[in-house]
């Protein structure tokens, strides 16, 4: 199988919007999400996980988890390093947890190398239509299990974002030179960012509440979703819940300003909430048996 070429990932303008004429109370449709039920279920799942967490900063991005053997301090945006890449049909965000099963021979080779070095590799979005993106996120192996048939079960945590600048080799697996991607200082003040993050959290709570109602679940008050996260890591957490819309997630990952990312997430959640509200009204008028 030929390895995919590294090409720029799809821009936000290339996102396809799926609209449906009718509203089925059991199928929630969002303009940015062709798989709405998966998106809603993802929000509910993340809310469930947050309620079970004991440590409030579980999703906070941290450069300290990078290996001290290769980093004497926090990575800088102008640093150039070599990184093995793992193209996947999903998007990893800083702070997010990603379970993986490694069974393909070339990636088992990669794992054997990583176990002898620093347990870090690049997760980069790839699909048959768009090819492989040039912006991804470092996945750090925080737990692994090697099976007797040489497969691996991994638990990875998203760390810094990166941009591919040069492809070093393609065999036996992709290795590229990358630079670190950081959010630029926002033109909005810190207080405005906090207010924007609080608005996004409010929309998330409403989406979870209404989706629970439509699913026949008790309408319990949604607890704190931010868990003391600053606006930037919170924006990454929100993006990680948009499962079922990987191109939109990739567009969010590539943004280099927290305010812009939060505003885009706010718009997506607002659109989703509008559809949920309409579906809820339809269900009230035409209740199912």
Automatic annotation (TrEMBL):
Keywords of the record: Coiled coil
Coiled coil: 245-279
Pfam name, any one: LON_substr_bdg
Extent of the signal sequence: none
Residue stretches making up the Lon N-terminal domain: 80-273
Record carries keyword Cytoplasm: no
Gene3D superfamilies associated with the record: LON domain-like
Protein name: Lon N-terminal domain-containing protein
């Amino acid at each position: 199988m030929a390895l995919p070429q590294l090409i720029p990932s799809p821009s936000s303008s290339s996102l396809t919007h799926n609209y449906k004429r009718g509203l089925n109370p059991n199928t929630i449709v969002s303009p940015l999400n062709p798989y709405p039920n998966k998106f809603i279920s993802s929000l509910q799942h993340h809310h469930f996980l947050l309620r079970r967490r004991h440590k409030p900063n579980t999703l906070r991005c941290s450069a300290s988890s990078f290996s001290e053997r290769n980093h004497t301090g926090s990575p800088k945006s102008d640093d150039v390093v070599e990184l093995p890449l793992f193209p996947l049909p999903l998007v990893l965000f800083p702070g997010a947890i990603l379970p993986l099963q490694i069974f393909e021979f070339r990636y088992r080779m990669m794992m054997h190398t990583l176990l002898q070095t620093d347990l870090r590799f690049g997760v980069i979005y790839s699909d048959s239509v768009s090819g492989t993106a040039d912006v991804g996120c470092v996945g750090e192996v925080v737990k692994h299990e090697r099976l007797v048939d040489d497969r691996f079960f991994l638990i990875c945590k998203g760390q810094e974002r990166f941009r591919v600048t040069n492809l070093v080799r393609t065999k036996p697996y992709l290795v590229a030179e990358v630079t670190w991607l950081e959010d630029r200082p926002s033109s909005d003040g810190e207080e405005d960012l906090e207010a924007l993050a609080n608005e996004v959290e409010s929309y998330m709570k409403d989406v979870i509440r209404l989706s629970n109602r439509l699913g026949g679940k008790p309408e319990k008050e949604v607890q704190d979703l931010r868990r003391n996260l600053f606006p930037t890591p919170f924006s990454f957490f929100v993006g990680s819940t948009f499962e079922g819309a990987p191109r939109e997630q990739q567009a969010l990952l590539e943004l280099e300003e927290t305010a812009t990312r939060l505003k885009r997430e706010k718009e997506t959640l607002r659109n989703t909430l509008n559809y949920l509200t309409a579906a809820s009204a339809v269900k009230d008028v035409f209740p199912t048996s």
